Amino acid sequence: MQNPYQQPSQPGGLYRPPPFQAPPEPDAGGGRVSRKRLVVGICALTALAVAAAATGVVLGVRENRDRASAAAAASAADPTKPLVAGWKTVINPTHGTAFDVPPGWEVLEPQVFSGYEDRKDTEKVLIGHTAPAFYKSRWCSIDANGDGQVTDVRLGNVGTKGAGGAKDPADIAVKEAPTWVYAAYTQPDKSVVTSDKPVAYTTKSGVKGSYVRARSSGVPQSNRCAGDGQAIVFGFRNSRGDLVSWDFYGRTGVPGAVDDALIMRILSTVRLAGDPQDPGPGP
């Protein structure tokens, strides 16, 4: 019996829904898994694997400094209150983290897991995160292998994850940023992925850590949805001292591709959201 949470046309895709969520069902046309509930990761480089992608609406980055400081102070007491007026707050109670996204982004339940399998070994999860937010989840749709299973490719994906085993925040970012790019866009070719050195960074609410930006160049466009992408990973510690990361990845070189200013504006809103609910370090 087909796993209702994984489309066979996407050999690298993973989606784990919140507990007790009913599985998606075919629509009246038959053979189509509901677009509304199915969230999957997508691999690139073959006609049967589509690269997921991300972009955002570029909003003005100039803010009144006094208002921004007041918002950051308010967030320290109430992490559910967005730092940017009109944005949505994404909370991951498992890791005790929060951040904001623009109003056009789709915020999923905290229990949702979104990630990528190794295309050569589908039992192996390369990377993934929980409590994700997506931008334009139907940016590009394709029937990858002609079996009627339509894959919806999104332009944006951002979430948080644990980083058990990492040495420090910079170590998280160095390891995870290129892994996201490879998993989402370039499998099985690692040679087209490059990374910058870690950069020390402090968010508006005072969370200190390091981020790394990674990107691909030269991914074969095996279909109209495939192509290059980038990732930015920010490593930091939650209130318990556990190492965690905020992860963004998205397509590059396409109309509307996410602007660096917007990525950094979202990153600037990362903050702690109480004590983590998980038992300890983990994914």
UniProtKB/TrEMBL annotation:
Residues 80-274 form the DUF8017 domain. Coiled coil: none annotated. The chain crosses the membrane at residues 38-61. InterPro entries: DUF8017. Residues 1-10 have a biased composition (Polar residues). Residues 16-26 have a biased composition (Pro residues). Keywords: Membrane, Transmembrane, Transmembrane helix. Residues 1-32 are annotated as: Disordered. This is DUF8017 domain-containing protein.
